[in-house]
Amino acid sequence: MELKKNVFIIGSKGIPAKYGGFETFVENLTLKRQNNSIQYYVACMGKDNKEFEHNNAKCFNIKVPNIGPAKAVYYDIMALKRSISYIKEHNIKNATIYILACRIGPFIGHYKKKLKKLQAKLYVNPDGHEWKRAKWNGAIKKYWKLSEKLMVKHADLLICDSINIEKYIKKDYKKYKPRTNFIAYGSDVEKSTLNDDDEKLVDWYNKNKIKPKEYYLLVGRFVPENNYETMITEYMKSQSTKDFVLITNVEENKFYETLKEKTLFYKDPRIKFVGTVYDKQLLKKIRENAYGYIHGHEVGGTNPSLLEALATTDLNLLLDVGFNKEVGKDAAFYWDKEDGNLSRLLNELDNMNEQQIQDYSKKAKERIKTAYSWEKIIQEYEIIL
């Protein structure tokens, strides 16, 4: 009889997934499980300490006080403590703790000793370059870099969702001889369940004065390192007759006000900030009906919103960095933020014929099917967990 594997997942906000990359990953990993000898335990950020089941995974809430940037660090530590207690109490022999992101490096050495005693393995997903994000001040950036270093040092295995991140880990932390494995993030190419005349969709278009196939789209977190300023400035420079629709949360955001002053985008009627869309099928349909997708993410590994764009949108215009090129390959177009070629690219793509558009659309979907399907990703995970 095969020994049951017990995998504790820490670092996502939890399941059921509402939004976010790690949350969607954990949702799919548990929902589409192929190997019944794996028992998942998932830490969830909650308002209480309840335990519940979802997708046959045992989930446990961690009540987290609102303490600013330290909230995520506190959450990961409490989830790790709870997992260790559970392993002890239930005398679990075959346990793996899988921590998503490198937030608790300064504390991990202490817990690694406890895990060793319990013969439990520590796996880590290093995520992207958190220490490069513009939103952090110098002291916090230093903390993230140190934290990453210590997580790499103590991990039994680092699961990188980007080839570029794996190369970086191997090169920058060579002295620790890190053991790494590349497993991408997943996506699906199933069409939205909504029809073109669905009331929800039509209302959304009418409310925002947008027409199908008459807009370029962007979906992502509203942070400076995603290059909003470059994309907006370049769009305003272009002669495109289409709208630029930005699905992102700008409420009470200082960056939004700064961007307004710098670019004067509100004077260009094509630039449309439309808030957030949490309805998954509606968002998928909006992606499918876009003329093109513009992606400016520069920091991080395989970006979920990029995979979703390739899976749904015909033309994809990606910032020319290693992370994006390894995903898009020849199924996308690339722009450089230094030489202002995004505006030229927009002018060119506005005049593409239907056959060319469909060729790129087909290539993008194939890219997802062959390299990024959830079935493939889950199979790879179940081999190494």
Explain this structure:
Helices cover 42% and strands 18% of the residues. The chain is an alpha/beta fold. The protein has an eight-stranded mixed beta sheet with strand order 3-4-2-1-5-6-7-8, sandwiched between helices. β12 (292-295), α10 (304-312) and β13 (315-319) form a beta-alpha-beta unit. The model has no long low-confidence stretch (mean pLDDT 94).
List keywords for this structure.
385 residues; eight-stranded mixed β-sheet; six-stranded parallel β-sheet; 14 helices; alpha/beta; 14 strands
Question: Which helices and strands appear, and what pairs or packs with what?
Answer:
Layout: E1 5-10, H1 21-31, E2 38-46, E3 51-54, E4 57-63, H2 71-89, E5 95-100, H3 105-117, E6 121-125, H4 138-154, E7 157-160, H5 163-172, E8 180-182, H6 199-208, E9 215-219, H7 228-237, E10 243-247, H8 254-263, E11 271-273, H9 280-288, E12 292-295, H10 304-312, E13 315-319, H11 322-328, E14 333-335, H12 341-349, H13 354-371, H14 374-384
Parallel strand pairs: 1-2, 1-5, 2-4, 5-6, 6-7, 7-8, 9-10, 9-12, 10-11, 12-13, 13-14
Antiparallel strand pairs: 3-4
Helix pairs in contact: 2-3, 3-4, 7-12, 10-13
Distance between the termini: 18 Å
Name the overall outline. globular
> Could you give the order of strands across the largest sheet?
3-4-2-1-5-6-7-8
What is the rounded Rg? 22 Å
Q: Which ranges are low-confidence, i.e. pLDDT below 50, for 5 or more consecutive residues?
A: none
Which secondary-structure class do the elements indicate? alpha/beta
